[in-house]
Amino acid sequence: MTRLSNIYLFFYNSVQAFGWAIALFRISVDFFSTKSVNGAYASAGQLICLLQTVAFIEVIHGALGIVPSGFIFPLMQWGGRAHFVLAIVRRIYEVQELPAVFITFVAWCCIEIIRYPFYALSCLGNCPSFLTYLRYTAFIVVYPIGVVGEMWIMYQSLPVIMEKNLYADYFAAIPFSYYTFVKAVLICYPFLWLQMYLYLFKQRRSKLYPRCDKEKKRK
């Protein structure tokens, strides 16, 4: 069973890595050919929507114990990204060409073309040390950039959400609107993000400096 799960995880992570590499390639080609950051969604938006939707499988992996990460943090990350790209960027055309979409998509791609190859090669027990270092270091800079981009787009989408009364049918039975929901998300986002950010630092310490971590526990 362990061998089968490793083969499956290698295949899944390899496909995701390939998908995110294609997304970054498309965004880069569009940027260098047009000298503009406005075409990120047009060039790779649908592919990123698909990749992010499929990534819900990772929550299931954690819930079933196929991977040791658990499901809480994967669910938080997936939920935040899925809401951003599927409910806001994909639906609200007015924000699709904003620079923040380009910034966010590039940040996501940079993280994922490191993260997924790391997971894939780890399944084979043959992950290079430089890739391990990148996996637990690149997020320090890239992760905040992506979160700022997400919050920026959500903030800029608020007038459109109010004007169109977006998702009114879905929120009809609830005592608040989608507009209010997005404002609440914006308020909570920094605090939820900080929890995940600190969690990643904890992972970094345990993966890159296991001896120091063990010595601290002994003390």
Q: Quick recap of the structure?
A:
The protein is mostly helical and 219 residues long. It has helices at 2-34, 40-54, 56-64, 72-89, 99-123, 129-135, 139-164, 178-208, 210-218.
Description:
The structure is a single chain. This protein has helices at about 1-35, 40-55, 55-65, 70-90, 100-125, 130-135, 140-165, 180-210, 210-219. The protein has one domain (about 1-210). The chain has about 220 residues and is mainly α. Helix 1 (about 1-35) packs antiparallel against helix 5.
Largest sheet: none
Note the beta-strand portion: under 5%
From the alpha carbons, calculate the radius of gyration and give it in angstroms: 19 Å
What's the helical proportion of residues? over 70%
- Taken from the alpha-carbon principal axes, the silhouette is globular
Structural class: mainly alpha
Essential attributes:
9 helices; globular; 219 residues; mainly alpha
Question: Topology, please?
Answer:
Blueprint (H helix, E strand, L loop, with lengths): L1 H33 L5 H15 L1 H9 L7 H18 L9 H25 L5 H7 L3 H26 L13 H31 L1 H9 L1
Helix pairs in contact: 1-2, 1-5, 2-4, 3-4, 4-7, 5-6, 5-7, 7-8, 8-9
